[in-house]
Every structure is written in C-alpha cells, then in structure tokens.
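Re: the request from the purification team.
They wanted to know what the chain is likely to look like in 3D before they choose a buffer screen. I agreed to run a prediction and write the result into the notebook, where they can find it.
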Amino acid sequence: MANRGIPGSWRAGSPDNTGKPGGRSPEPVSRWGIPLIFLAVILALWLGFRLKPDLGAFLGDVPLVSTSATPTLTIGAVAKATPALPTPANGAAGQTPQASATPRVIVPTLLQSTEERAVALLEQFQLAVEVEEVFNDSVAPGLVVSQSPAANSEVDAGTVVTIRISKGPENPAMPNLVGITVDNARAQLELLGVDVEEIEQWSETVPAGIVMGQEPPPETLVESGSTVSLIVSKGVDRVQVPDVRNQLFAFAQQNLTASGLRGVEGIKLTNDTGACGTVASQDPRPGIEVERDHEVKLNIRGTPGCTTN
C-alpha cells in the first residue's frame, strides 16, 4: 500500500525521500565505520602504552593493572600479561632488606693480667688478639703492660685487641741481695727478667735461707734472660749421730769420724756383763742432730783383765 500524500513519510530504499524536507535522516554510516573507529582507539592506546608506561596518567588515572600475583592489562578485547614484581625476602614489598647489624661488645680490662688469662678473656668476649712483647721497668715479665683499644671501649665483635706483654727492664742493674731471704731475692730478680741459680752452703754465722753472696755483684748491669747466682746459707752444718753401741771402741770411732763426728772415750764400766771393750752407751744418743765435728762420748765395758783396744 503506498504512502503517497502523507507528509514526512519515508520508506527504506526510496530515492524519492532523500534530502526532502520533512523526511528522515540519510542512511546510517557505512558498515566499516565502527570497526575503523575501534581499531583507531586500540592503536592510540597501544602507542600510549609504548610511549608512556604510566597508563594511569595517560588514561586519566583509570586503573588498568590488577593487583593479582600476575597483573593483566585489559584493553578492549586485548589482554596483555605483565610480569610480577619480585618481593624482597624480608620486609614489605618494594622495600630493600637491611643487612643484620654486627654485635657490639665491651673490651675487658686486661692490665696486669698474664698473657694466658688475657687471651682467654678476649676469646670469651668474641674478640681477636694480637700479642706484642715490650721492655718495661715497673711491670713484671709476662704481665700485660697496655692494651688497645682501651678497657671498657665498645667495639664490634671480632675486633683485634693488641696486648703488650712486659719483658722486664731492658738493661737492669743488679740490686744488693745479701742479707735478705732467698724468696725475697728471687722475687726481685724475676722483676728484672733474669733466671736465678741457688747455691747452698753451710755457715756457722748466717742463718739458713739467707743470701750470703751473689754473682754478678750489686749495681752490675745485666741483660734480660741472663742467669744470676745466689749463695744461700744452709745454716750450721749438722749431722745425725749414728748408733755405735756394742761396737768395739776402735770401730765406733771410725764410724763416727765418717759421719763428721769425733768419738772419745768416756766412762769405763767394770761391772757391765757385755763383751769386753765394746761400747755400752753413747752421748749424744743415736739419731740426734748435732753440729759437724761434735764430740760423742763412748762408755766402754772394761771388766777386769780386758782392754779397750
């Protein structure tokens, strides 16, 4: 049925209505227009992604990256996977882990300690040690003179602590040791870093344990490590009286002489029943200590008719 005479009417495909007043708009855009526009948008987004990594800024803060482990960028129907950013082993993502701090320790006091004790103490405090030997006039050999770092310093564990061990005076002068005890003399010589040799001798006038002489003499310069000789009194020479009872007088005298004593005839006993001429008793008695060359009286049995020879 025709629509003639009806104003503003339109029929598809009718050339009569094209451009006429009161008719509908012309035929829609060609079927390739929309795809071309879509492709243009894709191309613009792709160029923006290549030229400007911050797509949020490029697209007006439109979030295009997901927060999943492997973010995916979706543009229209195209999806592009972006690699996941590595996460540090420690701390929050994006933060650089800090290296563990070295432990701090306090340096102990080592002055006047022996080398062995100082080394053991430093190892206990997790510190390394370096040993140096130096001459010193006031600190005994073998003891710590100084240390570096100083005592009570706070340092890293593993720090090297240098300790200086005294070797004693470099060229000490011999003190006068005569008349003092041998223990006192030895202590003074050890401070000088010298070795001590003791020579004991009997003395009728100097008590036992007292220094009677020294070599080298006082005021002599000696080197560290040299040897000093001390002559030390043993006191009065004493011997033990042997038992010479029941021995013939002549044999008893010989035995007493061998012991550093003198046997002399004492009382002659005429009523003793023992063998004639033998020693019945002695004075001092056996086992007593007496000075060397002391007299021992021998009482001899002298029955009638016998001799003491």
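For the purification team: The first helix runs from residue 33 to 51.
Please add any questions underneath this entry.
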